[in-house]
Amino acid sequence: MNRYPLWKYVTVAIALVFGFIYTLPNFFGESPAVQVSSAKVTLKVDATTLARVEEVLQAAGIGHDGIQLDNVGVKARFKDTDTQLKAKDAIERAFNPDSSDPQYVIALNLLTASPQWLTSLNALPMYLGLDLRGGVHFLLQVDMPGALQKRLDSTAADLRSLLRDKNIRHAGINREGDRIVIKFRDAETRERASKTLADNSNDLTLAEAGQGDDLRLLATLKPEAEKKIAEFAIKQNINTLHNRINELGVAEPVIQQQGADRIVVQLPGVQDTAKAKDILGRTATLEIRMVDDSPGALEAGLAGNIPFGTELYTERGGSPLLVKKQVVLTGDRLTDAQPGFDGQTNEPAVHLTLDSAGARIFKDITRDNVGKRMAILLIEKGKGEVVTAPVIRTEIGGGRVQISGRMTTSEANDVALLLRAGSLAAPMDIVEERTIGPSLGKENIERGFNATLWGFVAIAVFMIAYYQVVGLVSVIALATNLLLLVALLSLLQATLTLPGIAAIALTLGMAIDANVLINERIREELRNGMPPQAALSEGYERAFGTILDSNITTLIAGLALLIFGSGPVRGFAVVHCLGILTSIFSAVVVSRAMINLIYGRQKKLTKIAIGNVWKPGTATADGQK
């Protein structure tokens, strides 16, 4: 009656082993580390960088606990923070001799100290949120008027190209405030232009103005178009910030929209506010310009006499390049960039896809500049770098562009990644910044741990005193619930915050409630004169429906918090929902497995240690028949 088949015991044993393994990494703590990543979008961190870091540390006489290379950069571990700071200074001097133009980002970091065998099983500790680990918090204000102006400038260029394709003459196209003004010399041409623009530009509202020789067509963005631009600006900026913050190696950064035009950025574990602000400001803008290959121009530029309207850059490989200042196309028109191969030469290449307006502009550029070189630049903080400068072989239409020549497969992948990264759709300003020190985070962890620990102890004392052996089983099941919950959070690499700790404490109280229902049901059956073995079976069977109903209703509330909440509320909801699932398993399956092991094989069971059982009109103890 009270015996589990072997597979159920095996399931419980596997669950306990799983919980132990994936909970274990949380007890090893973290090791101080120094991370080296690229400060230039065209500068790659590879095995050569790792070897160089090792040489610098060896020359400075600084020992380390291991150096690794991953997709973020090179990371070196150290025994303590003093050694970490010395190593950072040594690496900074070696890698960035010119502090005004740093080539690499040298950042302090924390890495898990778990043994290698645990890491190989993907058993990693939970991420700690800003309130537990310390770090920096920024609130960024997106310049929506700036985004609209940028879009209007781009639209003005599109309209100029469109009217030229349709052979419609105009007297000038300019942006004036929040509108585009197109001038004409006669009403008939203005009418043709108005009809053409109405057919090809769904986002614009057109209005006629002026008289005589001063005929104008005023184009303004529709409200729905402005809303779409604002939404795109927020999404694009969030994506770009994600790309940049990855260089810091921050575990689980929080980057999310707040309100209509603000972005919250939280970087747990980062204490250098200046470095974080520098990373946030390092957002690249893609530009396409023509190369000045006129005879003697490059030589004059190298001699210090740079021709008017040009700038001197260095191409990949170190070759000097004279680039015109006029921007013919920006990254806003790029929709995709993928690595591939040239269909004719089978050389590595990058395949670009432009939107319709960008395709028209690019077709005009390539048609008028066959045989000339075109430079693709990434501009960061006013400084530009030439990603590639291919020769235009023929007119390119259709919006699909191929960049090839003097690239390896790895370089083609890197260039495609850089071009896909894009640029900020609108400028941003930091309107709030806050630093939470690691000492405060440590204090929060200690308080949260103590609250959970003493809550568990209080529950354990009550259950054992009131229900005796069955109460002890309930306490073991509760400990199993906590073990499995922490293991799931670690496996999912969830971020634990103070609200998450509160959810763990709440889960303990809710989980023990299921055992109370089971225990009281067993006692009720014993009071009614049922044999102990039958009382155990009926207690679990009849309490299960009540336990399931109560947990489902609570789970619905948790899912609502998860779906509609944000930030700390979602963190609470994640722990809350997982805790409900683990509590059902531990309270019903694990506790009954232990009860079956204790009482299930006793054929002549006469008494259950479940505290005093009071029968109507008499007082008997310990479940006597």
UniProtKB/TrEMBL annotation:
Residue intervals of the Protein export membrane protein SecD/SecF C-terminal domain: 429-597
Pfam family, one: SecDF_P1_head
Domain Protein translocase subunit SecDF P1: 234-293
Membrane topology: Multi-pass membrane protein
SUPFAM superfamilies reported in the protein's UniProt record: Multidrug efflux transporter AcrB transmembrane domain
Keyword Oxidoreductase: no
Spans traversing the lipid bilayer: 448-467, 472-492, 498-518, 539-565, 571-595
Keyword Magnesium belongs to the record: no
HAMAP family (alphabetical): SecD_B
Protein family: Belongs to the SecD/SecF family. SecD subfamily.
NCBIfam families, A to Z: 2A0604s01, secD
Protein name in the entry: Protein translocase subunit SecD
Organism: Azonexus hydrophilus
Lineage per the UniProt record: Bacteria, Pseudomonadati, Pseudomonadota, Betaproteobacteria, Rhodocyclales
